[in-house]
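G., before I forget:
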Amino acid sequence: MPLLDVIDLKTHFRTDDGIVHAVDGVSFRVDKGKTLAIVGESGSGKSVTCMTIMGLNDRRSTTSEGQALFKDRDLLQLPPDEMRKVRGSEISMIFQDPMTSLNPVYTIGNQLREAVMLHENVSKQVANRRALEMLKAVAIPRAETRLGDYPHQFSGGMRQRVMIAMALINNPDLLIADEPTTALDVTTQAQILKLMNQLRRDFDSAIILVTHDLGVVAETADDVLVMYAAKAAEVGGYEDLFYRPEHPYTWGLLNSLPRLAAEGADLKPIPGTPPSLLRPPSGCRFHLRCPYVFEPCIPEVPELLPVSDDDPDHKVACHLAHDFREREAHDLLHDLMAEQR
Amino acid sequence: MIRYVIRRLLWACVLFLVITMLTFVMFFVIPVNPAAMIAGKAATPAEIKHVEHLLYLDQPVWKQYLHYLQQLFVHHSLGYSYGNRQSVNSIIARAAPITASVVIGGAILWMMIAVPVGIYSALRPRSKGDRVAMVSVLAGISAHPVWIGYMLSLIVGYELGLLPIQGYCNLRGAAPGQQCGGPVDWFTHMILPWITFAILYSAFYVRMIRSSVMETLNEDYVRTARAKGASERTVITRHVLRNAMLPVVTMLGMDIAVALGGAVFVELVFGFQGLGGTAIQAVNQFDLPTISGTVIFASIMVILFNLIVDLLYAWIDPRIRLT
């Protein structure tokens, strides 16, 4: 029984230029205590997916369809008051830029206490003690004095730790981290990821980690969802993704990683740019950039289906992967890919 | 924080001295001989010379300035009016409460209008309410306070007879020679002036608050607050307002300070003998001591309010305290 089961999620934004289909049919599952990494280019819909699950989209201009089943409730159908109770206590979210994510006019102790007191009727002292515990858990030195400090007195890495502390203070079942390390330098990034992994074990929370960095995925993920142009391209365990990828986009992503051994060789980016979500291309969204495009790709949208019957959790949305006529050619390409790595 | 306060106080003193000097020097540029005016039309040159001597006008400029400073700091006197020989201190002491009543009351009224309307507009941009507010703002800024004042006097005061249209009533009780007095009279006589005064400023402030709140709503920490599970109400009152009000506080201090120097239009329309009216009268009569007295008083107000605003700002925004 997964902790979170997202089924055919769609989110549309009404803009002056028309309707933007920011998320157009994404399905995935998150298991208790596991990490799901959502990978994709900028604009693929990763962040909007998370915001939709959290109910943080602007109600006036956004509509969502589909289901997000969390502990026997559909989050998308919850009234705003109910959703508010879930946010920050059962599901928490941290964001990309720690420099601006904390309110500059309140101490971090104040903001940590607020996170507690919004959900539980406890005294300020109890909340303060929890805040102190969490600061220590995220390894902020001299935590007692630091509670009275303001955000501008912390560095970027430390602010992100404070954000993590704030997100975990109510012991949520699920933590959604939207590119938490993108704005940090590599060493700090490693520290934060290590911290998140450890806290996941200590608090038994599941994590959804949104990132565009495959290195981060390799270090933290149990399961991976690859998104492209508002749709799911491929989803599976991290071994499936790194050793047995099926979608040409995933191949492209893995191929585009620079290799230390191949010094001086050209980088192999995926040609072209992601399509507009206002007027997306017909059929498979990737067909304009796919080196293996053939007839069904242009008119038909590929469904997200299991790769094989023995591995139902590894799913891909690609005509090439599912077309039995082309199966042989596909297997050949597959072996070629494996060889190159 | 203490060091910040002390530094600001010292700077305020320096500023004050500079202003007295500038005020003093400015009036020496005016090619007028006040002694001649005071001595009267039929004065002989000898009498004019005598008056000049009495007023220290025959001394070199710097000596006059020193004498002025001495008078100011040692005797706490702003001098005596050339026009009617009253002490400028008493002139200002009479006029200041009138202007203060208009300005402070008006400021409270304009904030009471501007804050809710500004916040509402920011939360519902491009809604009907917002559009109505923006049109009203345009009207409020465009209409001249004198026109507004007279129209209000005419319609509400004269035609409808609801409120008095002229004269200031003492808060405490009727001054000798006045017909009205006491808090009730004071209040009813202040209503129309307050509305007139507030309309222009509330228009500015609605716009400013609206844009400040709209900007703050887009900040990342507002999103964090929502992600924590805060209600929209908590988000706005706790997280948005305190940050959005920072520029408003700065402007408020300055506007009140400047207005305290003389809310001229309102005083003119409603016949108040406040600082504005007094200053204009003094300028027309080349009454140097009164002019410089009102300028000095206005400067003190500006310096004082700037100081208050700076301290308030530092209290609201902890990032400022480091500087």
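The mean pLDDT of chain A is 88. DSSP finds twelve helices and twelve strands in chain A.

More on Monday.
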